[in-house]
Amino acid sequence: MKKSKLRAHFRALRESLSAEEVAAASAALCHRLATWPILTGANTILTYLAFRGEIDPAPLFALLPDKHWVVPRVEGTRLMLHPYDPARLVRHRYGMLEPAADLPLVDPQAVDLVLVPGVAFDPQGGRLGFGGGFYDSFLPTTPAIRVGITHDCCLARRLPCKEHDQRMDWVVTPTRILRCTATACPE
User: Fold this and answer.
1) CATH number of the domain to which 51 belongs
2) Tens of pLDDT along 16-45?
3) Does any domain span residue 184?
4) Secondary structure (3-state) at 68
5) Which of 1, 8, 17, 178 could form a disulfide with 21 if both were Cys (CB 3.0 to 4.6 A apart)?
6) pLDDT tens-digit map of 94-124
7) What is the pTM assigned to this prediction?
8) How far apart, in whole angstroms, are the C-alpha atoms of residue 69 and residue 66?
9) What is the domain range of residue 115?
10) Residue 161 to residue 187: CA distance in whole angstroms
11) For residue 73, what are the contacts with CB-CB under 8 A and spacing of at least 6?
């Protein structure tokens, strides 16, 4: 199946979830992550600010207040990293919240772990994003551990993968933590 059809399929699945189901899935996933040694061993963590039914990692800010939380801002075709400051968020033209542009920048090399959003993931570490390529461009710039975050219903058996697609090291759902089995695309 083409990526566009898969993207539409998994977006429809995710958008069919009620607000209560998304909140429950987010809470379960965050409680799972808050005690996971891979995440608790990281100091500087890049996460995302959820929208459109994504799993919301924001409860982690309160569960792990001693971590250095970083969030991305879209600038052109790149992700710029800034410290998380809930008082300094602005709405991007795509609809999601992001940090104000005048906040200090964080070097991608300083990030220990990235919580990566996606429309769908697979156990091999494959990721289906929204199609903009922002994370595929960003991830090679950081040595951070890559952790895909998704709903259980958006965990595919196998997603198509091209050479430029960046693989995850781990995929986490509200009920599972999966160590990914592939480091590169087979194609």
Assistant:
1) 3.40.50.10420
2) 999 999 999 999 999 999 999 999 999 999
3) no
4) strand
5) 17
6) 788 999 999 999 999 999 999 999 999 999 9
7) 0.94
8) 9
9) 3-179
10) 7
11) 79, 80, 81, 82, 92, 98, 99, 101
